[in-house]
Write a structure and sequence with these properties.
The complex is a heterodimer of chains A (114) and B (107). Chain A has 114 residues and is mainly beta. Helix content of chain A is 0%, strand content 48%. Chain A has no helices and eleven strands. In chain A, strands 2, 4, 5, 6, 9, 10 and 11 form a seven-stranded mixed β-sheet that branches. In chain A, a hairpin with a 2-residue loop joins strand 5 and strand 6. Chain A is globular and about 40 Å long. The model of chain A has no long low-confidence stretch (mean pLDDT 94). The mean pLDDT of chain B is 93. In chain B, the strands form two sheets. Chain B has a five-stranded mixed β-sheet, with no helix packed on it. A four-stranded antiparallel β-sheet of chain B has the order 2-7-6-5, with no helix packed on it. In chain B, strand 6 and strand 7 form a beta hairpin. Chain B has 107 residues and is mainly beta. Classes of the chains: A mainly beta (114), B mainly beta (107). Chains A and B meet through strand 4, strand 5 and strand 10 of A and strand 3 and strand 4 of B.
Chain lengths: 114, 107
């Protein structure tokens, strides 16, 4: 597609539930990044993929968070046993490859845990 | 793990040049300087990046000091639509955002 697509744009879930957030990167981009952004803060790095493998997952806050990219294109961020503190905008970005290229960001998924 | 220092906020008169400074004294040899901006409720937008030479594109110019410890983003003729949070980031394979500079362009 022309840009990075994230679905859903908004998600409200109850505390303790499981959620999946999807990211469709720009076609041909091998690097894919997940960030989350809380109100008034800059985006916080979570994980990035180069191809199918997670090249750096050091930003995932705990083991309730997991991300996959099985075919090297679409990625899914999975959050188990959601907590109210997980409420944020989750941003996805892609670039032709990791390093020395600018990223193109999607519009994000606003997750609200009630 | 932001490794840059930026002013919290700046104002600029419409039509004038906006000069946004950034200090990155711990930059290492393989790290680029990137600039992004974020308009309310949207994802960050890539502006420009550079390694050690000054760069210019249709949006802005990036001036990097010779020692690479600081840089300045220049928007040559600021418009009201340039009001946004501007992030200066240094990185190689992945980027860590700080809290940025909130630029307000005043009519």
């Amino acid at each position: 597609g022309a840009g990075v697509s994230q679905t859903p744009s908004n998600k409200v879930t109850e505390k303790g539930k499981y959620v999946e957030l999807r990211c469709d990167p720009i076609s041909g981009h091998t690097a894919l990044y997940w960030y989350r952004q809380s109100l008034g803060q800059g985006p916080e790095f979570l994980i990035y993929f180069q191809g199918t493998g997670a090249a750096d997952d050091s930003g995932l806050p705990n083991d309730r968070f997991f991300a996959v990219r099985p075919e090297g294109s679409v990625s899914t961020l999975k959050i188990q046993r959601t907590e109210r503190g997980d409420s944020a905008v989750y941003l996805c970005a892609s670039s032709p490859t990791a390093g020395r290229f600018g990223y193109t960001f999607g519009s994000g998924t606003r997750l609200t845990v009630v | 793990d932001a490794k840059t220092t930026q002013p919290t906020s700046m104002d600029c008169a419409e039509g004038r040049a906006a000069n946004l400074p950034c200090n990155h004294s711990t930059i290492s040899g393989n790290e680029y300087v990137y600039w992004y901006r974020q308009i309310h409720s949207q994802g960050p937008q890539y502006i420009i990046h550079g390694l050690k030479n000054n760069e210019t594109n249709e949006m802005a110019s990036l001036i990097i000091t010779e020692d690479r410890k600081s840089s300045t983003l220049i928007l040559p003729h600021a418009t009201l639509r340039d009001t946004a949070v501007y992030y200066c980031i240094i990185g190689a394979n992945n980027l860590f955002f700080g809290t940025g500079t909130r630029l307000t362009v005043i009519p």
